[in-house]
Amino acid sequence: MKRNREQNLEFRAAVREIERILGGKLKKRERRRLHLEITGQGFSYDEIIQVGVALFY
Amino acid sequence: MLEKAAGVQKVMAGVLGQPLWSVRLGVGSFITFDFGAKVEDHGRAVGAYHLWIYMCDWQMISKDRVIAHSELSRKVLEIAVRRFEGRALSKINISQNPAAAVFAFEGDLKLVCQAYEDAEADEELWMLFAPEGRIVSLAPQGILLEKESRSAARRAVNF
What we know:
heterodimer; A: globular; B: mainly beta; 2 helices; globular
């Protein structure tokens, strides 16, 4: 598996986990917001989920 | 069908020629481009047109030569994407079977996007956020034009 592709998939997996926790799909604008919030911050998979919950719960 | 195609074309045409004022490498190989007027989104300035290069295998091509691609190291990509700075989009070509797109920027610089071989049907290659909540996205299953409101009501479960 390619390295950057892996990171892309990890982000997608985090989005899916956030959606499971919230009980509904994130809108594209919400996905964009999540991505903008975490870009350049070096967040782990778990932290991305925590950010998503903090933003959208 | 024709109505949808016309709607997509109208949104895509709107971004052409708009000044690019921000290009950033995001998570993995994601790239975000902000074009046009600055608008506020939850305390953050984004472009009236915001292009998010998402789950796609991409190449940067200058004068018919590949100068960077989505699997280079982050250090290299940070520098490579700066080549887009200050360039407006001049043309966009989209194909749906297979899903792919070519974003042509001023000065003979192109971003060629194609779906990963193992992409899921709904895995967007890119999304273009446009004024009035309109969003165009391309996935292996096809091109989509949506209109999203900012409100979101959702019931939480299991955390």
